[in-house]
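Dear colleague,

Thank you for sharing your sequence with our group. We've completed the structure prediction you requested, and as agreed, I am returning the results in plain text so they can be pasted directly into your records. Please verify that the sequence below matches your submission; if there's any discrepancy, let me know and we will rerun it promptly.
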Amino acid sequence: MTSYPNPAAPDLIGTDIRVDIPDDFRLMSGQKLEQTDVVARLYGPADAPVVVAAGGISAGRILFAKEDTTDTAPGWWEGVAGPNEALDLNRWRVLSIEFAPRLPTSQIYTITTHDQARLVRLILDHIGVQKVYNFIGASYGAMIGLAFAELYPDYVERLCVISAAHRSHPMATAMRGIQRRILRFGLETGNEKEGISLARQLSMTTYRSDDEFSERFDGPPPEAAGENYTVCGYLRSRGDAYATDANRWISMSDSLDRHRVDPANIKAKVFLAAVPSDRLVPYADMKTLHEALADSVFIEFPSLYGHDAFLKEISTVSAIVKRSLEE
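Please find the predicted structure tokens below.
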């Protein structure tokens, strides 16, 4: 296994890396980001192979949080990333990224997964990375990994792609399109918070499987029409707890739907993990991607949790990540 030297070894809590965005940097849409820098967190030994890790649109740069950290929430991939876990922070030099645009967002951006990949490259160049050993992504992060491998085919050796394909499926776009209309309606009527809650409630119905909802929420109806069914109460609580702003969510949601890569341009070895119950990324689309790639391994990943399996099935996801690193 090749080792790619890098400066400054952080501890297991990680070290934040901030990189100025060049003044002439423009998104593919021609827009200029209002933020002036990009941020990521760097973990692991300085002389270890470099791995990039990225999750869904709600994930941040904190993969793993020690008990004595000052961070207010645990890492988004606890149990998969950490000391002696599958993504072992004792063994790998891990860069966990923060997506643009940053909160709070004063406007809506037309930003693509290729734009996000270009921002990742800015960070990697800044810290002197010569080559990425593995880009591990789930959901939106995996889309960015695919875009990164298309833009920089000789710069990355491997991809681990969990629940993402080479395109956004039209049915997923249809559901997200409704969410964006709800968010805009909230902005236009001065009810942004309620718009975010309703959009989040709708999105939760796409993240999980029919079987899970049947198992958890098949209860009796309420006494009167208009009152919450059990499943509605669950969705309302999840929606009300979601913290973001409408401009950023519209930007990120649209970015998911603009995602397109040509598998023929990807040279890296790709490990594809597909969940048959995923309502957002159909199993058939991931099979199509597998067949179009020059070098790929297809892993069927059954789960009750649908698209959210990458967050819920810790042991299975850990095995997939470990396989992509060591096979």
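Summary note from our side: Residues 170-188 form the longest helix (19 residues).

Kind regards,
the structure core
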